[in-house]
Structures are given as structure tokens and as C-alpha cells.
Amino acid sequence: MRAFFCTGVTCLLALLLAACAGPHLQARRLDDPTATTSKVVVASPQLHAALRAAAVRVERNDDNFLEIEVHIMNDSATPVPVRFRVIFRDYLNKEVGRDDAQPVVIAPGQTHILTATSRVPQAQDFIVEVRAAKQ
Asked: Could you give all domains of the chain from N- to C-terminal order, each with its CATH number?
């Protein structure tokens, strides 16, 4: 009985933490705002409505590290303060590194170019998380 209670509490805690993490919506694509990109996720419906994105360049450098370049455009009429986190994953989809970029404010109609390089050669894939930043 005690084991069942502990398992139930653990499950409840995991669900609570998952709910606090908030939804992640795939960003709208630069070339087609009706489609989404799987490489960039946004943390709120407001950011989803305001931003469009595309992974423009993904390649390995001379040291065999993954280099990415992602363009994020503000498609709204107001400035959007954001912060970025790039999560690098290996071929098993396990996190092998992360890169937190400095917050920026993207002006209306402007495009921010985000670049990041993995720190380990095991990185095979990536995802960019976009969250609202405090002004």
C-alpha cells in the first residue's frame, strides 16, 4: 500500500511539473505562415502569433560540431522581447548540450539571426525554444 501511495505521489508530482512547464507550440514557418517548423518551438500563443522562423543552415564545422543558423522574424506590429535556448540532441534524442542566448527585442518586421554551435560531436539534431523575455 505504501509503495502504491509513493508511486501515486510521484506521478502526481510529475504531472504538476509538466503542467508548469507550459505548452510548446511549433513556430510558424518564414516561407509559409500556415505551416509550422519542428525545429523552433514557442512558449505561448502570443509568441506563436507574433513570430515566424526557419532553420536556414545546419552543418558540421571542421571540428565535427553541429552549427546552426535560425532566422526568427517578428510578424507583428509591436516589438517582441524574447530569449532563446538551443537544445542539442544525439541520435537517441537525448540532450547532449544546451546554449542559452542573451535576450533580444525583435522590432516589428525585423528578423533576428540566431547562431549556435554544439560543444560535442555527438550532437545530431537540435530544437530552439523561444520564450518571452522581461523588458
From this structure: 24-132 (2.60.40.3230)
